[in-house]
Design brief:
single chain, 361 residues, mainly alpha, Rhopdopsin 7-helix transmembrane proteins, 12 helices, 0% strand, G-protein coupled receptors family 1 profile domain-containing protein
Length: 361
C-alpha cells in the first residue's frame, strides 16, 4: 500500500520537524512521527506548560530556602553555605529553562539570540554551567558529610565556612571550564526539545567534547553520589549501634549529626534518582548519533537501516525531552527536602508562619 507524504512543511513543523533537510527525509520517517505523536504531545505539554510552573515555584522556594539558611540559627556551619550556593545555582538553571521556553513562544526573542553570536554562546555556556554546578555541589555535599562521619576528629574545625567557600569557588571554576566545551560542540542545542530554531551554525552538533560533557555532568557525579551515599548509610548504621553506649550529652550531639546526615542523604538520593534517566538517555542518544550513525543510500537494505535509525533517533529525542522534564524537578524541590528532614529548618519555617499568622490577626 502506498504511503501518503503529501503533508506540507508547516504541518510537519507543528509536529516537531523543522529540519532544513526535511524534504530529503524518507516518507516512512515522516509517517513514523505521526505514529508516536501522542507521546510527543505529552512530552511537549510537560515541557511547555508544566515546566513554567516548576520554574515559578522553584524560584520562589529557592529564594525562601536561601533566606532561611541565611538566618543566624541556620547559618552556623559550612552546610548552610553549600545549600545557599545550591539555591543560587538552581535558580540559575531554572532561569535558563525559562529562556528556552521564551525562545519557543516568542519569535522576536529567539531572533534576538540568533542575531547575536555573543548571546548564543552565553546561553549555551550558562545552560550547562548552572546544571553542572548544582550537580557538583551535591557531590561535594555528599562527600563532605561522608568525611565528617568517617573522620570526626579531623572534621572538628572552626574554618568550616572558609573551607566550604574555597570548595565552592573551585567547583564553580571547574564547572565553567567544562561548560566552555559547548562553544565547540552544539550538542543538544542543535536539536532542542524546546523546539526553537537553533543559532548553532558553526559548532558541530556532536563531537568528542560531548563525551566529556556527558561524563562530567551525569555519570561521574552519579557514581560519586552513589558511593558516597552507600558509605554514609553504612556509617549511620554504625552510629546507631554506638549511640546506645553514649551519655545523654553525646547522644544529643549524635542525634544532631544524624539529622544533618538525613538531610544530605535525602538531597543526594533524590538528585541521583532524577539525574540517572537523563544521563542514560543522553548517553544512548550520543552513541546512536555518533557510533551507529547511518546515511541515505541507494542500496535498499542500507536505506532501510537508515530509515530505522532515523525513526529511533526521533523517538530518542522525545525520550530525552521526557527525562529532561523529570530532571527539572531537581532544581525546585529542595525546600521540601529540607523541611521534611531538617528539624532546625522545619522549626524555623513553623516559627515564621506562626509570627505571620499572629500579625495578620
Amino acid at each position: 500500500m502506498a504511503v501518503n507524504c503529501s503533508v506540507d512543511f508547516e504541518e510537519f513543523c507543528r509536529l516537531g520537524i523543522c529540519s532544513v533537510d526535511f524534504e530529503e527525509w524518507p516518507c516512512q520517517a515522516r509517517i513514523y512521527l505521526l505514529q508516536i505523536q501522542p507521546f510527543v504531545n505529552l512530552v511537549r505539554f510537560l515541557l511547555l506548560n508544566v515546566t513554567p510552573f516548576i520554574i515559578i515555584f522553584g524560584v520562589i522556594l529557592n529564594v525562601v530556602s536561601f533566606s532561611m539558611l541565611s538566618t543566624v540559627i541556620l547559618c552556623d556551619s559550612g552546610l548552610s553555605l553549600y545549600l545557599r550556593a545550591l539555591a543560587i545555582s538552581d535558580n540559575g538553571a531554572l532561569f535558563n529553562y525559562a529562556v528556552g521556553i521564551a525562545r519557543h513562544y516568542s519569535t522576536s526573542i529567539n531572533t534576538l539570540y540568533m542575531n547575536s553570536r555573543f548571546l548564543c554562546g552565553l546561553n549555551s555556556i550558562f545552560m550547562e554551567f548552572f546544571q553542572i554546578t548544582s550537580t557538583n555541589l551535591v557531590v561535594s555535599l555528599t562527600w563532605t558529610r561522608v568525611g565528617a562521619i568517617i573522620f570526626p576528629l579531623k572534621s572538628i574545625s572552626k574554618n568550616h565556612n572558609r573551607n566550604a567557600t574555597v570548595t565552592i569557588v573551585v567547583l564553580t571554576c571547574i564547572s565553567f571550564l567544562v561548560s566552555l566545551t559547548k562553544l565547540f560542540s552544539g550538542g543538544y542545542e542543535s536539536d532542542s526539545v524546546f523546539e526553537y530554531k537553533t543559532c548553532q551554525k558553526v559548532a558541530t552538533p556532536w563531537g568528542s567534547t560531548m563525551y566529556i560533557y556527558i561524563a562530567f555532568s551525569s555519570w561521574l557525579p552519579s557514581v560519586f553520589i552513589f558511593i558516597g551515599n552507600v558509605l554514609l548509610i553504612i556509617h549511620m548504621k554504625k552510629s546507631e549501634l554506638i549511640r546506645t553506649q553514649m551519655t545523654c550529652t553525646h547522644r544529643n550531639n549524635t542525634f544532631s549529626s544524624s539529622r544533618t546526615s538525613r538531610t544530605l542523604l535525602a538531597v543526594s538520593i533524590v538528585y541521583l534518582i532524577l539525574l540517572l534517566p537523563i544521563g542514560f538517555i543522553e548517553t544512548l542518544e550520543l552513541y546512536w548519533d555518533v557510533v551507529l550513525t547511518k546515511s541515505p543510500s541507494t542500496n535498499p537494505t542500507e536505506n532501510d537501516l537508515y530509515i530505522k535509525w532515523l525513526q529511533e533517533k526521533m523517538l530518542l529525542k522525545w525520550c530525552r525531552g521526557l527525562c529532561f522534564h523529570i530532571y527539572h524537578w531537581n532544581f525546585a524541590i529542595n525546600f521540601f527536602l529540607y523541611y521534611l528532614t531538617g528539624k532546625k529548618f522545619r522549626d524555623r519555617v513553623i516559627d515564621i508562619m506562626s509570627i505571620t499568622r499572629f500579625r495578620n490577626f
